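Morning run. Coffee first, then this:
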Amino acid sequence: MMSIRIIAASLLSLGMVVGPSGLAAEGLSGAAVQVSNRDHIKIVGSSTVYPFSTVVAENFGRTTRFKTPIVESTGSGGGLKLFCAGLGAHYPDITNASRRIKKSEIDNCAENGVTEIIEVKIGYDGIVLANSRKNPKLEVSLRDVFQALAKNVPIGEGGLQANPHQTWADINPDLPSIKIEIMGPPPTSGTRDAFVELAMEGGCNTFPFIKALKGTDKAAYKALCHTIREDGVFIEAGENDNLIVQKLNANPDAFGVFGFSFLDQNIDTVQGALVNGVEPSFERIADGAYPVSRSLYFYVKKANIGQTPGIAEYMQEYISDKASGDEGYLADRGLIPMQPAEHDDWVDKINNLEPLTVD
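And here it is:
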């Protein structure tokens, strides 16, 4: 996971003075910047984090004096684009992400005056390759996954060809002789980003000549390992993971790519494939044994704290033991909690409202 720190000057150090109207007298390059003065928190972002944030928002609205936050599922990339577009009531206060924020997104935020960003890690999730319980459970390696979905695959000792595999048995004779049909998220999704990085690149690296390419031509290596085939085998199903689950029940031969929490909530109808011999389970993701797992986050505009009511209190609710702790209510929804020591470190960061920094 990349190490990211953001150099972020506070609004005061930029010479901004926020008045009763919510207007900053000066912004970047002297431009006027408006901070949010909504009466409720606006949240966008990851479809994977969406159900967790919805539960926290509903609980927050019931148990505090603040209005229930509005949560929208836009995908991690889409959410960060909206989040970074500017300050003011028209832009979200918080964005959820099923991957860490990218340097390019940090730069985009800064260009639009979003200069202090607070990162909150909430726990872990696994990405599953699931199918209907009407069919047998699949057992695949990361190499199998790469060969099923990559646009180009190895041939011979160092050659490449357009992916010819039409059935799982074409890849591995131990796999079923059924058509490869996989439904998954679009490019704006953090789940898609994490899947190609963890699963496809993980399988790509099992070919020595491709792994060596990383040291000589990183761009070519990434293009080869991360590019999904476009011949109809992989079907983009939008940001609605529940829709993928429904389609798996209608088509038992198909597979779907989505977060573990959706598997956990639909375990009576769908099942997760073993990857490299490891079951996607709460325990195997928590201890790091399951190879396709990732951290989950949300990001907060520090400038909006004190402007949009309840942001600091919402952050406290989310990171509390009762929500994201070992026995918190989010664990019942499929979130894999952090170990207590790591959880406590993040509580300290939130208590101090520490923004990210970069060299």
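Residues 190-204 form the longest helix (15 residues). Good start to the day.
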